[in-house]
Amino acid sequence: MRSWLFAARLGQLKGIECDFEVVAVGTILHDIGLTDGVPGPNRFEVNGAAAALSFLKGRGISVRRGQLIWDLVALNSTPSIALHKEAEVALGTMGIGLDWGGFGFELFPPAEMAAILDALPRLEMKKKFADACCHLVAAKPETASDNFLGDFGERFVPGYRPISTVDILMNAPFGE
Question: Model-level pTM greater than 0.85?
Fold first, then answer.
């Protein structure tokens, strides 16, 4: 919920026009793939995006709005791409980035930030998020190679060794 409030307020502060309902739904559901209730073979963001879209089917949402929500959930942890997408995806990612790593913290008047954090305290978010990431790395290490999960694996998961893109290239089955 904090991420959504941050996204909505950032939209106001930056004068970004968009479908704020899409931002709300996508931002609120952005980490659903981190839960044990959303299994799947893919990285957690893609599993979460599929779960969000499945939840929305039959609830009257248009294909376009559903795609924006899928993109927001799937790309929220890849800001180098998400910030170049539609306003809803970019804005949701900004709110999530603020909640996660403090990106844009300085844009908020201190009283507004304090009010949000008082209403929705972080409750050891740093530790709980790190634990969730480590759980995923240990359970499905193959999903941690091309995203930030690998960083948690390298730092906190004994025996984790990321797949190297250099090894993939050098071991490709082509004689050159």
Answer: yes
